[in-house]
Amino acid sequence: MRNYLLIAAIGLLFFACKEQPAAPPEPIGALPTAQQMEWQEMQYYAFVHFNMNTFTDMEWGMGDEPPSSFNPSALDTRQWARIVKEAGMKGIILTAKHHDGFALWPSEFTEHSVKNSPWKNGQGDVVAELAAACKEYGLKMGLYLSPWDRNHAEYGKPEYITYYRNQMQELLTNYGEVFEFWVDGANGGDGYYGGANETRNVDRETYYDWDSTFALAKSLQPNIVIFSDGGPDVRWVGNENGFAGETNWSTLNKGEFAPGIGPYEFLPVGQEDGTDWVPAECDVSIRPGWYYHASQDTSVKSLSHLLDIYYKSVGRNGNLLLNLPVDRRGLVHEADSAALMELKATLDATFSVNLVKQGSASAKDLRGKGFEPSLAVDDSNDTYWATEDGVTEATFLLTFDNPVTFNRLMLQEYVPLGQRIKAFEIYADLGEKEYKKVGAGTTVGYKRILRMDEVTTTSIQIKIMDSKAAPTLSNIGLFMAKTEPPVEKKTAK
Questions:
Q1: In the predicted model, what is the mean pLDDT of residues 54-75?
Q2: pLDDT at 4
Q3: Tens digit of pLDDT for each residue in 323-381?
Q4: For residue 450, what are the contacts with CB-CB under 8 A and spacing of at least 6?
Q5: Which of 397, 383, 411 is nearest to 479 (CA)?
């Protein structure tokens, strides 16, 4: 009996002494929603500008173009989806209606649509075909519906808002799940307006009653994210070259913005103490124009240029929305497809082997069980290393039994608890018995990728120099880019 009591006592002592899981850091600042996190994880997807402008060789149509002008000879949305999938992109956002007002679906509320075009004898529906193709290829579909309509007779009047919402309801009700609703800031100016041929301007802040319009969108598609200059869910990066700021906060004071209105200087960089989580989407076309022009068949962006865009969008805490101007056949052009595949092959070659797997992770600053350094190198977005509360400077160490050579470094924060890191530096042991600085950056956010000179080392220090609160790192990557061409100086910014 005495032996049983002794064994029980030892067991109780063991469990009492066993380290208990530490509490996670308290959230700080604005936080992402589940929908925003799902969107962020997409990273890279396609814009397709294909509409009336494709056939009139314009970028912005006036609205007086006859529906008969829209007549693709070999429209194949499955070809779009196949190429997008093979390129490593996760979805397609389609220009369902651009500023000229022509609808790519047989809208009940206008005659200015595919239902009055010769394509498929007026029985076609581009949106429906794309929805089916995306489903087949495992892609998400998003839709752009221009707030400005240079065709509609009532644009600028209250009646047009009813029309706009009716069309939005058609798009968000009849075509399955839509991951993103896209709205730009082009609102008002000269147009056809049902034959009036005049200039009409609107109060961009109040005319559309955006709060109610966006609330309707979310009632129809609860998992949707909405893009405009300042959100509400995803913000414009403030330029059309695809570059986020070197410092890029996912937080913004979205109340200061409306489509076409806002302090645009904050869009590339965000606002460190912004009250809302509104991450940046970096939109850019693979050609000089957004719509197809045969004269630009030889002007597709080079591999070097596309890589520069990737590292300054995805590599700077943004998502990349790369536009494909579908041609008059209704196909992604061969030159565009070739450029996409070259980019995919190059990125695959760079990021296929994460060298951190060859080493071990440690840190002086430890929070406790459940937040160990090993959790920053386990390829999971759901686990992370963290320091104790109050620690805003910390050093994370990677050591290797054999030297590793790398020129790309990737960091990810655990952003469900907020964006924290303000500055970091990278040091490497170059065999001279001291660490030397080999790289530096500011914000991290969901993902930060540094392009660095080639480094060979057996030990790396990642020093968090400043953080808004206890820093977190959910993933770290070291990679060697062997096949990437040098950066084109003309695209650097």
A1: 98
A2: 47
A3: 999 999 999 999 999 999 999 999 999 999 999 999 999 999 999 999 999 999 999 99
A4: 315, 408, 409, 410, 426, 439, 441
A5: 411
The token duo for 209 is: 């009653």
Burial-class residue 342 by CB neighbours within 10 Å (0-12, 13-18, 19+): middle
Give strand ranges (E) for 268-390.
276-277, 280-285, 318-324, 359-363, 385-386
Higher pLDDT, 14 or 228: 228
The percent helix, strand, coil of the chain (3-state, each to 5) is 30, 25, 45
Over residues 243-248, mean pLDDT? 98
* 61 contacts 102 by C-beta, under 8 angstroms: yes
Q: Give CA–CA dist 417/26, Å, rounded.
A: 7
Strands (E), 248-313: 251-252, 276-277, 280-285
Backbone angles phi, psi at 465, to 5 degrees: -85, -30
Amino acid at 171: L
Determine contact, residues 167/209, Cβ cutoff 8 Å.
no
Burial class, 249, CB count within 10 angstroms (exposed 0-12 / middle 13-18 / buried 19+): buried
- Cα R_g (the chain), whole angstroms: 26
Instruction: Kindly state the tokens that stand for 120.
Output: 């498929």
State mean pLDDT over 269-289.
Answer: 98
- Interacting residues of 405 by C-beta distance below 8 A, sequence separation 6+: 454, 455, 456, 480
